[in-house]
Amino acid sequence: MEPFQNFSGIVAPLDRANIDTDAIIPKQFLKSIKRSGFGPYLFDEWRYLDHGEPDMDCSQRPLNSEFILNDPRFSAAQILLARENFGCGSSREHAPWALADFGFRVILAPSFADIFFNNCFKNGILPIQLEGALIGVLFEKASGIAPLRISVDLPAQLLTLDDGNQIPFTVDVGSKQRLIEGLDDIGLTLQQADAIREYEARRRIEAPWVFV
Amino acid sequence: MGSKTLYDKLWDAHVVRVDETGTALLYIDRQLIHEVTSPQAFEGLRLAGRQPWRTSANLAVPDHNVPTAQSERASGIADPVARIQVAALGTNCASFGITEFAMGDVRQGIVHVIGPEQGFTLPGSTIVCGDSHTSTHGAFGALAFGIGTSEVEHVLATQCLIQRPSKTMLISVDGELGAGVTAKDIVLAIIGAIGTAGGTGYVIEFGGTAIQALSIEGRMTVCNMTIEAGARAGLIAVDEKTIDYMRGRPLAPTGELFEQAAASWRTLVSDAGATFDRVVHLDAASIAPQVTWGTSPEMVLPIDGQVPDPAAEADPVKAAGIRNALNYMGLTAGQPLAEIAVDKVFIGSCTNSRIEDLRAAAAVAAGRKVSKNIKLALVVPGSGLVKAQAEAEGLDQIFTAAGFEWREPGCSMCLAMNADRLEAGERCASTSNRNFEGRQGQGGRTHLVSPAMAVAAAVTGHFVDVRAL
């Protein structure tokens, strides 16, 4: 995984609660055995007027002009602003793959579904939970004629709006470290191989039926 | 030592180590694997030159993409992309030495049906799968939750996951369920009560006399939909029903080892005096058959209810959610649920495709006919073994005589990755778990119900209280 660098990006406001991972990336694209190339199909059913299928050339497809990501102001957005319970439903990691492939690196919402939240960190996306009223204010600012730009400083855990206002945020220490250093979780866990073997040896005595 | 919840006991028994930040390395006893969320994990292993940590901890089965029509089973999967994905599972399992129940094996079926059926799911174990409905296995007093593909690879390579402890919630459902009211109605009523994000950050233990009275299959239905309330895992305490269910399962321990295991499993209950971060009470007797009307499982009402009015909702975000849902679902505020006509009926999915579900559905279908306005009524058993059992009991005959199609096992129209799907605008009475936009096909309209309620809708052509049939 690439290390997470501080950046300044445009905010795309997606004003809807309970956005599920089926909406983020519909099922037909899950047939791919690859990990990349999902960006063009992000929010496929909302973004295009026709029915999408894998390997379609999306540059030729009719766009839904009412969908926020089709607004030219947000075509290069790197920060997604959303409502409650973002990423609920299916555990498909194709959802953060599609978001990352589109270019999103930060998601701001009042709450996230647990599995999606976890999956983001594995793919270089920083999900930030902010208080509902604050999210409401950001929706107002991001929906103006000029798009809202926010600078993200992960080590300092600080968002800076283009009007100078600053918003601190919280993030789990371990997840933060892994994002900043772009660490390979598996490699880290395998450094604990002896502890895992010791655990297994103990467990084989306490619960031998698990190992038959 | 203070009193422990069931979750505390499962967590404590699986912690390998905890770091200074409180993050734990949690040992995973079992992993279930299917074709959709595993290919990139196997590829990751291969690229890093890694091998599975404990091969026998894994069991694989294709289910999401597999055809349910016998003809397509015989001729091979028509969709070339799906065919490649199912074949990739076979190749990956063969090259890493993982057991797979491939298409054509009678043991093939939906991953959350076959795990318990085979005794791969063990009480007291930690179980993961790259599928959110892994919560199903919590019905056995196992800590079971869905994970993403990166974590599938992590478990393959290390047999562990990096986790932080969850908060605990007890949902106690007490009293007696009315006739015609099922486990599905209980869990839909719970989601209606706490909301689709009500369980976020929690592991939910379901307790109370109404949960104790459920069969193991009913308990699986309740735990299955825990994720629809936002909680990654649901739990139900072990009792003698759990032990009896496990006895004789192909992959369960046998003989003296079984008795030793059973003695340990009987301790898998929350201690008297254990405290939970949140407690919710529901009265079983007040639960009526449920029908969802919107595009989130929390948008649910009893069958005698009416489609809600967004104008009556004070919260503007929620009101917008209701308006979006009514627009997508083609419904108007105030419309009685029992007047909504249905186009297709789907009985199946990891929520409701076990033998008891099929028996309950067949009991309503017997001697009745699918209504003329129904374009398609599907019964998709959860596994080849469920199908064989149903056929031995003559249930398939009841379904086909009534006008249902009797299919091969798989996820089918729950998520419509195969050929079974809704067309735009079609309305479905479905025993599955998600009524999201496009879930059963782009533009399709899903209403979640119990198997008995799905058959009632099939034979009358619209939603109806099965108790009044």
And the CATH topology of the largest domain in chain B?
Answer: Aconitase, domain 3
Average pLDDT, all residues of chain B:
97
The stretches of 5 or more residues of chain B where confidence is low (pLDDT under 50) are: none
Largest sheet of chain A: 7 strands, mixed
Q: What is the CATH superfamily label of the largest domain in chain A?
A: Aconitase, domain 4
Q: How many domains would you count in the coordinates of chain B?
A: 2
Short description:
The complex is a heterodimer of chains A (212) and B (469). Chain A is α/β, with parallel strands linked by helices and 212 residues long. Chain A is built from 8 helices and 7 strands; from the N terminus they run E-H-H-E-H-E-H-E-H-E-E-E-H-H-H.
Describe the model.
The complex is a heterodimer of chains A (212) and B (469). Chain A is of the alpha/beta class and 212 residues long. Helices cover 31% and strands 14% of the residues of chain A. Chain A is built from eight helices and seven strands, in the order βααβαβαβαβββααα. Chain A has helices at residues 21-24, 44-47, 94-102, 114-121, 132-142, 173-181, 185-190, 193-206, and strands at residues 7-13, 79-81, 106-109, 126-129, 149-153, 158-161, 166-168. In chain A, a hairpin with a 4-residue loop joins β6 (158-161) and β7 (166-168). The longest helix of chain A has 14 residues, at 193-206. Chain A starts with 6 loop residues before the first strand and ends in a 6-residue tail after the last helix. The model of chain A has no long low-confidence stretch (mean pLDDT 96). Chain B folds into two domains: 1-288, Aconitase, domain 3 (2-Layer Sandwich), CATH 3.30.499; 291-468, Aconitase, domain 3. Chain B has 16 helices and 19 strands. Chain B has a five-stranded parallel beta sheet, with helices on both faces. In chain B, β3, α2 (39-48) and β4 form a beta-alpha-beta unit.
